[in-house]
Give the backbone structure.
Amino acid sequence: MTRIGNHTRISDVIKADPGRYKAGIDWETDTIVSRRDRFYAASQRAFVPYRTPLIFRRGQDQYLWDEQGNQYLDCLSQNLCVSIGYNNPAVTAAVQHQAEQLQHCTTMFFHPVPAHFAEELAGKMPAGEEWVVHFMNSGAEAIDFALLLARSYTGNNDIISLANSYHGATFGAQSVTGISSFRHNISLLNGIQFTSNPDQYRGIHGNTVQPYLDDLDRTLLYGTSGQVAGLIVEPIQGYGGIVPLPAGYLPGAFERIRAAGGVCIVDEVQAGFGRTGGDYWSFALHQVVPDIVVLAKGIGNGYPLGAVVAKREVAEAMANKFYFNTYGANPVSCSAGRAVLKVIDQCNLIDNAKQVGLALLDVLKGVQEKYDIIGDVRGCGLMLAAELVRNQQTKEPAVEEMHELFQLTRKHGLVASKSGAHKNVLRICPPLCIQMEDVDFFEAAIANSFQDLYQQM
Ligand SMILES: Cc1ncc(COP(=O)(O)O)c(C=O)c1O
C-alpha cells in the first residue's frame, strides 16, 4: 500500500493512479442475482415484486433501461423518490459541485446549504405561520421524530392513526402503520389508536364523511384518556392503495384532535412535492394547516433525505433535549433537495403533474369501461390507481389477477406497482416530468396488459 508521508495528500495519491481505486461492477445477469442472494440479509432480499428479477442499468427522465437494454416508461419513480426524473441534470450539477467542496458537515457545525434549503422549504409552507425544519435521512426516521415532537410539545401520549395507513418500518413508524403485513409481531409503541379510514370505495361507511368523523369521536372517547398528543395522517394513502381522503374529513378531524389537546401531523412522504398536482402539499387540497409536516422520498430525487417541518412553537418543545442525526442535513443531499425545488418551480412540474395526471386517469377510466375486473379508478395528479375486484358488488379483491396483470405491465414496457392492504391495486406514480407524449404509450401498454390478462383468465 502507498504510504502517505509528510505533506503527501491522499487526494494526490489517488489522482496519480485513479484506476486503482475504482470498484468494478459485474453486469452479468446471473451473477447480479446470485451475489445479491448470497450477500443480502433476508430482510433486504425478500421484497421482490416480479417473478423474475428486474435489473436496472440506466435511467433518463421518465424512462428506465434494464441490463439487457429493454426500455420502460417508469410509473413508480423508485417508490416515488425520483420526483423530477432520472439523472436530472440540475440535481447532478448541484450534487457534483457540493461533493467536490465538502461531502459531509454534521449539524453541530454550520453550513449554508442546509440552512438555505430549510429557508426554501419553510417558504413552501402555508403563509401566516413561522415554520422551522429538522433534516433527517429517511421518511421513517422523520415520522419517529414527528411522533416524539407531538408528545414532547403536548405532554400527552396517545396518538391516533388511520386504518390502512403506511408510515414506515422503524419501531415508531410501524406502530402508526395500519396494515398488518407491514407490522411485525412484537411490542410496538404504546398509546397508538387506529380509527377507520374514510375510504370512499371500500371503507366501512362507504361513500360518506360524517360517519368516519363519528368513529374518530368514538376512538377519542373510548380509546384514549381524552387528551391526545396528536393525529397522524396521509391525505392520500399511498401503500394503502392510493386512497384519497374525502373533502371535509381533514378539517373535521383536525378540529377534534386540537380540541383534545393534540397536534396534527401530515405525512407528505409520498404525496408531497407537487405529486398530487394542485399544490406542493396534498394537505393544501383540504384547506387545512397541519402543525407538523413529514417529508422524504421526492424531496431529494432519490438522495437519502427526510425532513420534519413544524410550527416554530411546536418545535421549540425540543429546545432543551438532545436529538441528533449524524447524517442529518448532509450538504450533498440538501443540494439535491434545493435543485428539486428549483426544477419543480422553473419547469412548472406541479401543473404538468395535474395535466398529464388527468390524461392518465382518463386512460384508466377508459379501460375500466371495458373490463369489469376494475372496481375503482381513483387518485389525483400523478398518484393514480386501478383497484381489481372479482365481483363489483362484493368487491372481493382480485389478488392473483393483479399479480398477473402486474407481470404483464412489465412485459408491455411499464414499471408500475401493486399496492393496497390486499395487493390488488395497480399504482401509477410516474416522475413529475412525464410528458403528454407518453400517454399513448401508456394507453397501449395498459390496454395490452388487460387484453392479455383476459385471454389468460
Ligand atoms: C407515506 C409514507 N410515509 C413514510 C414512509 C417511510 O419512508 P422511508 O421508506 O424513507 O423510511 C413511506 C415509505 O414508503 C411512506 O410511503
